[in-house]
């Protein structure tokens, strides 16, 4: 099979690698590398458990073994993270994943795709630099502003529950642990994630709520309070949106059709509560690559959609639902308030950070622990 993968972030590079390993001829289109991408860069341990072959890249990140969480009412909770969360510069992480794909024979086409169309017996992929090439199947892994999604689903990327994010990469910040500060006046949080050679510091709030400069002001205020004297450190700003699935409305969103499918951010496959998407990018890439290898270009989207809905997609749907209805400053205050005096609840929060506690079953576990603590 001849496959075009549009986008060389984690979703595209890993999907290309998996297809290349299965013997398919893969062309990966992306003109952006090497580049940093607006991101915290936190990769949860579940990624390396589910995809053990990726463990070899783990050393390029910086393991965070502790976290400080500041509640909307100003209390700070310190947590041990039993299985470290690895924090990467995206320039490094994405380059390593792309190298792995190239090592199994994937062709890296350093061009930007501008149009994709399913026509007759194939898919035409046209770039800003060359004439259209024909493939059996196209993978849309082109992130939050996906051209593939626009062309083949006729939908704007993003979803209704998306986030606006802005912040800075700061060099020399004295931070070794994850720092998260939940906001009081709006859903969202500020983060500081220490990477090997700098930190990613930023904020997310629901899209449309605040301008980029207002968001950056929040980050600068936090930096001033928490790291006095940081103004002299070198910093570079970033800003971007994070897609999120539209909250559950009784119908699963489409992830493809005959000869195409969307993975990662292009499919809005992001946790609607935390904004994390790297592990869903990798998971969706793996599920699609297997489905395409097994079922071929005309049926792959069906198998992919069904397996996604029965697997990681359920968590994404739940997160989107909770983000819309329950994720509020008071709810964070309550949960973290209980965690101040309950070791059990601390463990739940650490498990949530590590993505070891599914949203399914979370309420039941919190309730069980609360009852046990009262006895
Ligand atoms: C500020 C911020 C902080 C975040 N923090 C975290 C975090 O700490 N942990 C976490 O798990 N997730 C985080 N996320 C989410 C995470 O960044 C994404 O979910 C993840 O990058 C999705 O991977 P992807 O491969 O689907 O898309 P991307 O990483 O966006 O890659 C898409 C690629 O497609 C390329 N592309 C786009 N259009 C075209 C085109 N027309 N032709 C060719 N190539 C194209 C782009 O250049 C890019 O290389 C964060 C997001 C933001 C914005």
Shape: globular
The largest β sheet comes out as:
8 strands, mixed
Q: Report the top-level CATH class of the largest domain.
A: Alpha Beta
Task: Please give the share of residues in helix.
Answer: 25-40%
- Unique bound compounds: flavin-adenine dinucleotide
Order of helices and strands: EHEEHEEHEEEEEHEEEEHEEEHHHHHH
Tell me the radius of gyration. 21 Å
Mean pLDDT, to the nearest integer, reads 93
Question: How many DSSP E strands?
Answer: 17
What is the third-level CATH name, the topology of the largest domain? FAD/NAD(P)-binding domain
User: How many individual helices?
Assistant: 11
Structural class: alpha/beta
* Low-pLDDT windows of residues: none
- Order the strands across the largest sheet as they lie in space: 3-5-4-12-13-14-11-15
CATH second-level architecture of the largest domain: 3-Layer(bba) Sandwich
How far is the N terminus from the C terminus? 61 Å
- What percentage of the residues does DSSP assign to strands (E)? 25-35%
Number of domains: 3
